[in-house]
TrEMBL record:
Organism lineage: Bacteria, Pseudomonadati, Pseudomonadota, Betaproteobacteria, Burkholderiales
Entry superkingdom: Bacteria
Domain DUF2779, chain residue ranges per copy: 302-424
Protein's name in the database: DUF2779 domain-containing protein
UniProt xrefs under InterPro entries: DUF2779
Length: 495
């Protein structure tokens, strides 16, 4: 059997989701094999190596020729480790192929008293069904390749782990044995069905096809070719903008969109406001914010805090997924129409929290009013920082208590039909301030500030690339606070 005929765990995942998806994928370009998992994250790979000190590692195969090399290297390495006196010798990234046409890459194979312990790394705190499928697949391949297994399990992130620094990650991973669950996964039968499916006729679409899951399917146009386009209700007019349960009730009552819903059928002022905006095709802004604004002391300042939560902590004294502020942006609008901007973006060499506090408090003199969008987020971050820096706890707690929530103001007084039912900052800025581009990052491919900052922290990121990412974050922060100020001004205009 040639290497190109082998099936990988991603083939199984596609087939389990939709047999037609698997068939279409196999009819396309020749599969290049399972992408590397151990090296997906530099920090995760480093933590794995630190947790299995002295373990050998097989480089991730890049193509089918590489798979032949990797399988041979794995067989040799496992044989050598079996002969060692070390009872816990381990191999990272083991690549195995079975005699019935399956192959896989295993994050960790560790010697045990009665065979090999097989581990799959998941950068998360819980497992799901595809994890068990993948482990069943790996166990099948390892057994057919001639290796006796003692146990099969997952390495999950232990959120109680406190990183001591110096690359010491012992205890980061929590071992979960899933062996008792593998009996419900008939991998041998699946493999036969996978092979038949790949070489047979195009399967029909399943009754529940995951066409819209995980960003949609690349073959959706193929599967729906020739179908009449449904007369879809535009998202901004869909009954769902009034809430899913209410939408079902209204649909059962014979309503098709918000356009034909009488306002008297909506008990809450907020829902009536949204329906009125959709029906009249223009924003609704009720007076009230202007009266509140008259009591807000000047100057007005607008705060945006960005955070990161790393699965594998890199700063001593922090835990997995702990929410850590790394950037703040502060815009100030004065009564005479002036505007100033101050920012801080952590360098990343050490825990950023203490410096974030020092710089923020230095930029915030007493007096004035501080605004944030969905201020509960910034309020919680300020209170967490107060625990981190007790000497500044009183000032931070006072700032948290005094924050004005612009989200709450908008929800209580306005609705723009282009929001399409969403009150996220992204949806709101896009609806009310479409020309500002407040949510966009300057660089295509960057999905979020968290991703941009995470890339800037990588040891393999070139200095010029790191500088470019930091510039992207600075511009994004400025647009965020300007959007916050502009939206508040839009609300006040109604008065």
């Amino acid at each position: 059997m040639t290497p190109i005929s082998f099936l990988d765990e991603p083939d199984l995942r596609r087939w389990r989701a939709c047999p037609r998806l698997h068939w279409l994928h196999r009819q396309g370009a020749a599969p290049t094999g399972q992408p590397p998992r151990v090296g997906d994250s530099a920090e995760a790979a480093a933590a794995l190596r630190a947790s299995y000190a002295g373990a050998r590692e097989i480089a991730a195969p890049r193509d089918d020729a590489d798979w032949v090399r990797a399988v041979a290297q794995t067989q040799l390495a496992l044989a050598e480790l079996s002969a060692r006196p070390d009872p816990e010798a381990a191999l990272l990234g083991a690549c195995l192929a079975s005699d019935d046409g399956a192959r896989c890459r295993i994050d960790v194979m560790q010697r045990g008293a009665r065979g090999w312990r097989l581990w799959r790394l998941r950068l998360g705190t819980v497992a799901d069904a595809p994890d068990v499928d993948a482990l069943a697949w790996a166990a099948h391949v390892a057994a057919r390749a001639g290796w006796r297994l003692q146990s099969v399990g997952l390495l999950l992130i232990d959120t109680d782990f406190l990183y001591p620094g110096l690359g010491c990650y012992a205890g980061l991973f929590r071992e979960v044995d899933v062996g008792p669950m593998l009996g419900s996964r008939p991998v041998a039968e699946w493999l036969v069905a996978l092979q038949r499916s790949a070489h047979g006729r195009e399967p029909p679409m399943p009754l529940v096809a995951p066409c819209a899951a995980d960003g949609g399917c690349a073959y959706a146009d193929h599967c729906h070719a020739g179908e009449p386009a449904p007369a879809a209700v535009p998202p901004a007019q869909a009954l769902e903008i009034l809430g899913r349960e209410r939408a079902e009730q209204l649909r059962l009552a014979g309503h098709r969109s918000v356009l034909d819903v009488p306002l008297t059928a909506l008990p809450q002022p907020r829902l009536r406001r949204a329906a009125r905006a959709v029906q009249q095709g223009a924003p609704v802004r009720e007076p009230g914010v202007a009266a509140l604004a008259a009591h807000w002391p000047r100057p007005w300042r607008f705060l945006r805090i960005e955070t990161i939560g790393l699965a594998v902590p890199i700063w001593s004294g922090t835990r997995p997924y702990q929410i850590l502020p790394f950037q703040w942006t502060l815009g100030e609008a004065t009564a005479d129409g002036g505007w100033t901007l101050q920012q801080h973006l952590a360098e990343g060499q050490s825990d950023p929290r203490t410096e974030v506090v020092q710089r923020l408090l230095a930029a915030l003199p007493p007096g004035g009013t501080l605004f944030a969008y969905q201020a509960g987020f910034e309020r919680n971050r300020l209170r967490e920082l107060a625990q981190r820096v007790p000497a500044q706890a009183a000032r931070l707690e006072a700032l948290a208590a005094g924050l004005v929530d612009v989200f709450a103001l908008g929800r209580a007084h306005a609705y723009h039909p282009d929001q399409a039912g969403s009150w996220s900052a992204r949806a709101l800025w896009r609806a009310v301030l479409p020309g500002l581009g407040a949510q966009a990052l300057d660089e295509p491919g960057l999905r979020s500030p968290l991703q941009a900052y995470g890339l800037s922290l990588r040891a393999d990121t070139a200095p010029e690339r790191r500088a470019a990412l930091r510039a992207v974050l600075a511009r994004h922060g400025e647009r965020q606070v300007r959007a916050l100020q502009a939206y508040l001004a839009w609300l006040i205009e109604a008065g």
